[in-house]
Write a structure and sequence with these properties.
- The protein has about 350 residues and is mostly helical.
- It contains eleven helices and two strands.
- It has helices at about 5-30, 35-40, 40-70, 75-110, 115, 120-145, 165-215, 225-265, 275-295, 300-315, 320-350, and strands at about 145-150, 155-160.
- The protein has a two-stranded antiparallel ribbon with strand order 1-2.
- The longest helix is centred in the middle third of the chain and has 51 residues, at about 165-215.
């Protein structure tokens, strides 16, 4: 192993640890909090978490083994199963992100009719489509023996070496796979989230107009208060832009290098650097580690659930601790009152003549 392989191995190991821990926390929050389970987006997040967890325990460890041993990890049949999972889980997770973006678009653009437009039945139908879509591509690749160990990515995945006898068919299949998964999801993400950003900015603009009218009426308002309101308007606009940029940016940064490498591999006559191939695969894996933070753990509801779980594990509660402090304070006050009464009582019991 050279220095690049060692760094890549450490990177894959870190992705595995972060992905496992973060996705397990999301799963625990989903099972613990009934309010999260009642929400329609919770089903999409659950499906995304399931795909990320399975990818973290099946494909990522084999990639790590392939990097360490610089060879084929496991037998051919076992690698085909893992390659099937790689295609299925990656496709399923991408389509789950697209479903989440559509759900948020409906929630922002049609807030009053959201519950009538997006119901649990609709979410189940959407998830059914993602599973059928993913199963079709992964099953075709496995039945045609187009999955196996790919040295360029040090992982069990689609392998053009195994498809030399069906070069044109494999090219068409690969282009169709990435067009109907990566490209389709990217288009859906851009269209829905940019519409969400447009609506959010429109609402922010209306709030800004009302705020400015109020500030004009309050002529005696202090300049610092006026500046504070203007800064809050700016922060509100920046928050909306930052969230949308995070949703689209993480998807593009993590998946685009891998997809481009796949397409270039089909048509380029020259070899591709194995270090770049493994790095692009690591970036694709890193999406499984970032998804819990992008879609779940940074939201208030999940943070609150994590806090409650942490307090429960540590056998303490904020309410109990505050009540115990209040009890101690009351006890201290009663003790001081009793001491004061005892100190005054002997003086009042003395006879007048003394």
């Amino acid at each position: 192993m050279d220095a690049a392989d060692i760094v890549t191995s450490v990177l894959v190991l870190g992705i595995i640890v972060v992905s496992l821990l973060s996705n397990v926390v999301v799963l625990i929050c989903f099972l613990y909090n009934p309010e999260i389970r009642k929400q329609v987006p919770g089903l999409f997040i659950l499906n995304l978490t399931f795909c990320n967890l399975l990818l973290s325990v099946s494909n990522m460890p084999l990639t790590l083994v392939g990097l360490v041993t610089t060879g084929h990890p496991g037998g051919s049949s076992f690698c085909q199963i893992v390659g099937f999972l790689d295609t299925f889980l990656t496709t399923n997770s991408m389509l789950s992100m697209a479903a989440l973006s559509i759900d948020r678009w409906v929630a922002v653009v049609f807030p009053l009719s959201y519950h009538s437009r997006i119901r649990h039945r609709d979410a189940v139908i959407a998830l059914g489509y993602t599973w059928i879509h993913s199963l079709c591509f992964s099953t075709v690749a496995t039945c045609r023996s187009w999955v196996g160990y790919h040295q360029l990515y040090a992982s069990c995945t689609l392998c053009n070496v195994r498809a030399k006898g069906a070069g044109t068919q494999f090219m068409v299949f690969t282009v169709a796979l990435h067009s109907l998964t990566y490209l389709l999801t990217l288009i859906v993400l851009c269209v829905t989230y940019l519409k969400v950003l447009k609506v959010a900015r429109f609402h922010c603009k209306r709030i800004d107009v009302i705020t400015m009218q109020t500030l004009v009426l309050l002529v005696d308002i202090h300049p610092s208060v006026r500046q504070k309101c203007l800064d809050e308007q700016k922060r509100r606009r920046q928050r909306a832009t930052k969230k949308i940029s995070t949703f689209i940016g993480t998807f593009v940064v993590c998946f685009t290098p891998y997809v481009i490498t796949r397409i270039v591999e089909l048509f380029s006559p020259g070899p591709i650097s194995p270090h770049w191939g493994v790095l692009s695969k690591c970036l694709a894996y890193s999406k499984a580690a970032s998804d819990p933070f992008v879609y779940s753990l940074l939201r208030h509801q999940y943070r609150k659930t994590c806090s409650l779980l942490a307090n429960k594990v540590l056998k303490r509660s904020p309410l109990n601790s505050s009540s115990s402090h209040g009890t101690q304070n009351n006890a201290g006050r009663s003790d001081s009152n009793s001491n004061a009464t005892n100190s005054v009582q002997p003086a009042t019991d003395k006879p007048p003549g003394q």
